[in-house]
TrEMBL record:
InterPro entries: NUDIX_hydrolase-like_dom_sf (IPR015797), NUDIX_hydrolase_dom (IPR000086). Keywords: Hydrolase. This is NUDIX hydrolase. Residues 1-120 form the Nudix hydrolase domain. The keyword Hydrolase applies. One of its GO terms (molecular function) is hydrolase activity. Transmembrane segments: none annotated. CDD domains: NUDIX_Hydrolase (cd18882).
Length: 135
């Protein structure tokens, strides 16, 4: 999963409302599953290219979060282009969110014109990331 940041904000994906995925209808981070034999960094770069047509040159490892649902390898990288240049291929919407928005645990979608919650693990990851940057 990728923490893509720009101007003290992080890029979020509004996940589709599909009952077969984790956190349907919630805001979360972009990223996905690894292919057999694929490294976490290679998988991250592939997923980001597939999901928003963005090329990450250098991804920096942040942390790994594991629970009974998934193992999440988290990387971070700057988002060097505007949102209008991203080509959303997966998910219902995307948005840049400030620390305040992340702390509130919800974000407004301009595409569906609704406030939707952040996935709890995604909120935890982003709060940990902001905390680590303040040290």
């Amino acid at each position: 999963m990728a923490i893509l940041y720009q101007d003290n904000q992080c890029l979020l994906q509004l996940r589709d409302d599909l009952p077969t995925i984790l956190y349907p209808g919630h805001w979360g981070l972009f990223g996905g599953h690894l292919e057999p034999g694929e490294s976490p960094e290679a998988g991250l770069k592939r997923e980001i290219l597939e999901e928003i047509s963005y090329v990450i040159d250098v991804a920096t490892e942040f942390r790994c979060y594991a629970d009974d649902r998934a193992v999440r390898y988290i990387y971070h990288a700057p988002l060097t282009i505007g949102l209008e240049e991203l080509d959303l291929q997966e998910g219902a919407d995307l948005a840049l969110a400030s620390l305040e928005t992340i702390q509130q645990g919800q974000c407004y979608s301009t595409k569906i014109e609704q406030v939707r919650p952040l996935g709890d693990i995604h909120q935890r990851i982003l709060l940990d990331f902001f905390e680590s940057r303040l040290k």
